[in-house]
C-alpha cells in the first residue's frame, strides 16, 4: 500500500458538517524485537503495520477514527463517520504548501538491510559480556529494538508533511546476588539512528556498565535518611526534570487544571540559574523527528529561561484553546491514537560551574549517579524518586556507595533551591507513557546541587 494516495476527498467529507480542522495521519511501520534472557533467545518478533487515523476538530472538540484500508473510497467512508451533523457550512480546505522539517536525519546503516541473525548475535555478545564481569551476576536480560516508521500528515490547514524515522535501542538489565542481597544494574543506548549507533557505543560496553553497577551495589551500605545536600550528576540524565517538571508543562495537563504551572507564564518558577528546553530537532536523539505527528516542524522550545516560565508544550488542539502556536509536540504512538502534547528531548541547559568543584564545595551529602523509578503529582509538583546508584559525599569527596535511597520533594521548590549548575550535560533515554501511549524520549541535565532535600533510607 502507498501513503501517496489522494486524501482530499476524505478531508472534504470530514469537513462536510463544519469544523476548524480535518486531518489524515498515514503510517507504514516495521519493527523488530530480540530478547536474550540467561543466554537463551527468548523472543524474536518482527512485524509491519499500515493504517490511517482521521481526525476532525470542531468547536475545539475531537472526533477520531482509524483503519487499515488505505484506499480512497474506504477513507471517505471513515471520514463520514467522524463528520459533524450538517448544522454549519462545510469547513475550509486550504491549498497545500511545502514545509521544511526541523531535522533531516541521516541514517548511515539502516537496520532493515541487516539480517536478523546479526542483531541476535549483537544481543548475545552483550549478554555474554555482562555475565563475564563477575560470578555474582546471576541474571542478564538484553533487549534489542528497532523501528522504522514512515508517516504522512495531511490536513485542511494546507499541511502535507512526510517524515521517515528509524529508531534503534539496546537495553541491558543485570541482577547480582550475594547471600540474601540482590542488586540490579541497568543501561540503555539508543536514538534516532541506524546501526551506526553501535560503532560509537558498543553494546558490550553498555553491558559492562550495567553488570558493574549491580556488582558494586552489593557492597553498598544502607543509605542514611534526613535532609541533606544532594548533587545530581549529569550521568543521571534528566529523569527528574522530565517527571517533576516536564509533564506539568504539557498544555493539556495545564488546561485540565492539573498542573502546578497553570497561570504562571511570566513568573519566576525556578532559580535564575535554571533554563529548561525541549528540542525535538536534536540530531540522533531518541525524542527527535523532522515533524511531530501533526505535521509541525520540530524545534527548540525554551520553556523556562533564567527561572522565568515562558510557555507550554502544545499540540494543535491545545494551541487553539490557548490562542498559542503549536510547538511541534503533538505526538502519538501510532495511527490508532490521537495526538496529544508530549515532550521530546527535554533538558536543563548547562551552567558555568565545574562539576568537580560542586562536589568539592559540598561538605556532606549524597551524589546521585543514576535515578530509578518514581511518582509525581503534577497538580502540586510533589515527587518521590528512587536512587539506583548513589554515593555519600564526605568532606567534599565522593565516598562509599549507598543503596535504598529515595528523594522526596516538590518540583517547583527544588527548581527554586538549586544553587549550583555545572557546564556538563548528560542524556538519558526512555519511552514515556501517557494516556496509554508510549513515545520515545530523551532527557538531560548538567551536574547540579540541591542544597537541602529529604533523603529517605532503608535497611537491606
List keywords for this structure.
single chain, 460 residues, alpha+beta, six-stranded antiparallel sheet, six-stranded mixed sheet, 10 helices, 19% helix
Description:
Strand 2 (40-58) and strand 3 (61-67) form a beta hairpin. It is globular, with a radius of gyration of 24 Å. The strands form four sheets. It has a six-stranded antiparallel beta sheet. It has a six-stranded mixed beta sheet with strand order 11-10-9-14-21-20, with helices on one face. Helices cover 19% and strands 41% of the residues. It has 460 residues and is an alpha+beta fold. It contains ten helices and 22 strands. The protein has helices at residues 8-14, 72-82, 116-131, 197-200, 203-218, 239-245, 251-255, 316-322, 355-360, 411-417, and strands spanning 21-37, 40-58, 61-67, 137-155, 160-178, 181-192, 221-222, 226-232, 276-279, 300-305, 308-309, 330-331, 340-341, 345-348, 364-376, 382-394, 397-403, 406-410, 420-421, 426-434, 437-445, 448-456.
Amino acid at each position: 500500500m502507498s501513503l501517496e494516495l489522494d486524501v482530499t476527498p476524505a478531508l472534504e467529507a470530514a469537513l462536510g458538517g463544519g469544523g476548524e480542522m480535518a486531518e489524515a495521519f498515514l503510517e507504514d511501520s516495521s519493527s523488530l524485537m530480540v530478547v536474550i534472557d540467561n543466554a537463551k533467545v527468548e523472543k524474536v518478533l518482527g512485524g509491519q503495520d499500515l493504517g490511517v487515523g482521521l481526525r476532525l476538530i470542531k468547536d475545539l472538540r475531537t472526533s477520531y477514527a482509524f483503519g487499515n484500508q488505505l484506499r480512497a473510497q474506504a477513507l471517505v467512508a471513515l471520514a463520514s463517520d467522524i463528520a459533524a451533523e450538517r448544522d454549519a457550512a462545510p469547513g475550509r480546505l486550504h491549498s497545500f504548501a511545502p514545509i521544511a522539517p526541523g531535522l533531516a536525519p541521516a541514517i548511515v546503516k539502516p537496520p532493515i538491510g541487516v539480517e536478523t541473525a546479526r542483531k541476535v548475535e549483537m544481543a548475545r555478545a552483550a549478554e555474554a559480556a555482562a555475565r563475564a564481569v563477575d560470578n555474582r551476576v546471576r541474571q542478564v536480560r538484553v533487549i534489542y529494538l528497532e523501528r522504522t516508521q514512515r508517516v504522512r500528515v495531511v490536513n485542511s490547514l494546507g499541511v502535507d508533511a512526510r517524515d521517515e524515522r528509524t529508531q534503534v535501542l539496546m537495553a541491558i538489565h543485570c541482577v547480582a546476588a550475594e547471600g540474601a542481597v540482590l542488586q540490579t544494574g541497568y543501561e540503555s543506548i539508543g536514538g534516532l539512528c541506524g546501526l551506526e549507533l553501535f560503532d560509537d557505543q558498543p553494546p558490550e560496553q553498555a553491558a559492562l556498565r550495567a553488570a558493574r553497577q549491580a556488582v558494586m551495589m552489593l557492597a553498598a551500605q544502607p543509605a542514611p535518611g534526613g535532609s541533606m545536600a544532594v548533587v545530581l550528576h549529569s550521568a543521571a540524565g534528566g529523569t527528574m526534570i522530565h517527571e517533576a517538571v516536564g509533564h506539568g508543562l504539557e498544555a493539556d495537563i495545564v488546561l485540565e487544571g492539573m498542573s502546578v504551572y497553570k497561570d504562571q507564564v511570566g513568573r519566576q518558577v525556578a532559580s535564575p540559574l535554571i533554563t529548561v528546553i525541549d528540542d525535538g530537532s536534536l540530531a540522533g536523539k531518541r525524542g527527535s523527528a523532522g515533524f511531530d505527528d501533526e505535521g509541525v516542524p520540530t524545534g527548540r522550545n525554551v520553556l523556562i529561561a533564567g527561572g522565568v516560565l515562558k510557555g507550554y508544550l502544545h499540540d494543535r488542539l491545545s494551541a487553539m484553546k490557548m490562542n498559542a502556536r503549536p510547538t511541534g509536540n503533538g505526538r502519538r504512538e501510532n495511527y490508532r491514537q490521537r495526538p496529544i502534547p508530549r515532550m521530546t528531548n527535554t533538558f536543563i541547559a548547562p551552567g558555568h560551574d565545574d562539576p568537580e568543584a560542586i562536589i568539592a564545595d559540598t561538605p556532606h551529602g549524597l551524589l546521585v549517579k543514576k535515578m530509578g523509578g518514581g511518582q509525581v503529582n503534577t497538580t502540586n509538583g510533589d515527587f518521590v524518586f528512587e536512587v539506583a546508584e548513589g554515593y555519600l559525599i564526605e568532606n567534599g569527596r565522593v565516598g562509599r556507595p549507598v543503596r535504598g535511597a529515595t528523594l522526596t520533594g516538590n518540583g517547583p521548590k527544588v527548581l527554586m533551591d538549586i544553587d549550583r549548575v555545572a557546564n556538563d550535560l548528560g542524556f538519558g533515554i526512555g519511552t514515556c507513557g501517557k494516556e496509554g501511549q508510549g513515545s520515545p524520549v530523551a532527557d538531560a541535565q548538567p551536574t547540579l546541587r540541591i542544597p537541602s532535600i529529604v533523603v529517605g533510607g532503608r535497611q537491606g
